[in-house]
Amino acid sequence: MSSPAHDTQRSAQPFAPSARIAQFLSLSRPQLEALQLAKLGRQLTRLCGSSAYYRTRLEQARIDPQAIRSLGDFFAAFPTSTKADFLADQNAYPPFGERLGIPRDEVALVNMTGGTSGQGQEIYGRSQRDIHTQGYLHALPWFLAGLRPGDVAFNCVPAGGLTTGGWGPGEGLRIAGATAFHVGGTLSTDAKIDLMLRVGEVNFIYASTNYLHRLTDALLRRGLEPKRAFPRMRTLFIAAEGYPVEWAGRIADLWGCVLQEGYGSTQCAGFGASTFDDGAVRSDGARGLMHLFEWETLFEVLDPATMQPVRSGETGELVVTNLSIEGSPVIRFRTGDSVRFIASRDTGSGRPVHAIECGTIGRFDDMMKIRGNNVWPSAVDAAVFAHREIAEYVGQVFTDGQGKTECEVRVALTEQAASTLAPDCAQLLGAVQNAIKERTNVLMKVVLVPRNELPEFTYKARRWTDQRQQGYRL
Amino acid sequence: VSTPEDSTDPTERDYVVLTRMLSDAEQLCRTDDPFMLGQYRHLHGRVAALVDMMRPANSAGIVP
Question: In this structure, are residues A320 and A339 in contact, taking their beta carbons and an 8 Å threshold?
Answer without folding.
Answer: no
